[in-house]
Write a structure and sequence with these properties.
Helix content of chain A: under 10%
Shape of chain A: globular
Largest interface: A-B, 86 and 87 residues
Number of helices of chain A: 4
Oligomer: homodimer
């Protein structure tokens, strides 16, 4: 409620990135001007003047889906085999991973704009806050997906349970610990009230 | 086995970051020269010449632990109340989050070196690959923690289940969906064979 009032006093802001935030070696954040207009109820904010930390792409994820609209709506909707190809530099980091049944895969959704705080995804009726959604659109478009690890071959991991587009940049792989990562009774209240489509 | 052979042909590489990867606005990766020597069995690699993408710190996490050695060994070891303070710019993104029981918190472990592929943590006997461990030391030191959301007050989230040091930079907050994030029977084989200390 408070948050809504806060935004009722404001209008959407569409901005390009400040020039000092651009460098040749980085992926530039996508903003409204580059990726299309806002939907009704969506709110964009001005992005910070500068970045605070930087990432390496450590590999690529290969999936059967070439375009975002082809992807499953969530990772459990598909059993498709996907391949994570790690840059050879990091191959030593895989030692011991073959004993793990599930991995947490972090990847970079490089096509997503970063300036929306309220979003109105097509499949939900009303706009919601970015941090209440798993949308790729967020200040730091890092996806977290749990995948079943089928096998490791050299610098390749064969997994199922990913839903990203082909050639998505990989940021990290972690072992999934049921003791700390699994909360079977967790609830997303706003979502529980929706019919699944 | 293959991976071990690969490293037996190599020696540890200790390098500063290449100068073209440094900018004033970024956190510089920590390497051996800055953060101390390698332990027996540990292997460092040369970091890539350049970064691929960049992050905003969107807030800070406040916890009772001032130094890394004071932190719980994992998030379920403590029920301490922690506070996530979101930068006011992003407050709109919290709308709807109050209906969520658990959140996935992404944060940046800015004190960690980034160049190790084999690590020998104090509490385990043998070195293991970075991607088989949840150590902060990794090419992209992004932590993923599941926390119980107690309440939201303005730009503050009160949570339990975090284990990071006070003032840790926040990268993202996501709703935890049991349907896709919870795998109660996941197994970490190398860990299952160890006694818990």
């Amino acid at each position: 409620m408070e948050i809504l009032q806060y935004f009722q006093q404001r209008t959407a802001v569409w901005l390009d990135m400040p020039p000092n935030a651009r460098t040749e070696t980085m992926t530039e954040p996508k903003t409204a001007g580059e990726t299309g207009d806002l939907r009704e109820g969506e709110v964009a904010v001005r992005l910070p003047e500068r970045f605070d930390a930087s990432l390496y792409y450590i590999g690529r994820i290969h999936t059967p889906w070439k375009r975002r609209e082809d992807c499953p709506k969530n990772p459990r909707e598909s059993d498709a085999l996907c391949t994570i190809v790690l840059e050879p530099r990091w191959i030593g980091g895989l030692q011991g991973l073959e004993t793990v049944s599930h991995v947490v895969v972090l990847y970079w959704m490089d096509k997503a704009r970063r300036d929306l705080v309220l979003q109105a995804p097509h499949h939900y009726r009303e706009p919601r806050g970015t941090f209440a959604l798993r949308s790729p659109v967020r200040p730091n478009p890092i996806a977290v997906s749990v995948a079943r690890l089928i096998r490791v071959e050299g610098n390749r991991l064969f997994v199922s349970g990913l839903d990203c587009v082909d050639d998505t940049p990989l940021l990290d792989i972690k072992p999934y610990f049921a003791s700390t990562d699994s909360v079977p009774d967790a609830l997303v209240g706003w979502h529980a009230g929706l019919k699944t489509e």
